[in-house]
């Protein structure tokens, strides 16, 4: 769904893109960098644009959800399913973040699959 009541500006699309790509901070700051990146974008820009706030919230919820899935997968290693899940999760995460970033850059209100919406 696009924000049809107001056209999404180039600046908003850029920040929406950054809200998703900021999750790659997890490669620099393991553990919580993938959550801190979108959180920083959200806290800085949430009052400036509904689109930016929405995309930053969506990215943040997705990253928190995937952290939970990784923790559960870690416990499931005991029954061997977890090893498969831990191998697949980073690939899915990368694919979904790239898709979300492209959609945000197009001005589309993207929704990640497999996301628990903690922050509304």
Account of the 3D structure:
GO terms for molecular function: glycosyltransferase activity. Keywords: Glycosyltransferase, Membrane, Transferase, Transmembrane, Transmembrane helix. It is found in: Membrane. This is Orotate phosphoribosyltransferase. 63% of the residues lie in helices and 0% in strands. Helix 1 runs parallel beside helix 3, helix 1 runs antiparallel to helix 4 and helix 3 packs antiparallel against helix 4. The protein contains four helices and no strands. The two termini are 17 Å apart. The protein has one domain.
Topology overview:
Blueprint: H1 10-21, H2 33-45, H3 50-75, H4 81-105
Helix pairs in contact: 1-2, 1-3, 1-4, 2-3, 3-4
Main location: membrane
Subcellular location: Membrane
Organism: Bacillus solimangrovi
């Amino acid at each position: 769904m696009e924000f049809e009541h107001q056209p999404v500006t180039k600046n908003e699309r850029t920040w929406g893109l950054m809200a998703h790509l900021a999750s790659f901070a997890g490669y620099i700051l393991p553990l919580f960098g993938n959550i801190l990146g979108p959180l920083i974008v959200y806290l800085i820009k949430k009052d400036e644009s509904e689109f930016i706030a929405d995309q930053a919230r969506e990215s943040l919820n997705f990253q928190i959800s995937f952290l939970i899935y990784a923790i559960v997968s870690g416990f499931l290693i005991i029954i061997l399913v977890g090893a498969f899940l831990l191998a697949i999760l980073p690939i899915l995460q990368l694919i979904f973040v790239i898709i979300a970033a492209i959609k945000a850059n197009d001005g589309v209100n993207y929704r990640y699959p497999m996301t628990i919406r903690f922050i509304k």
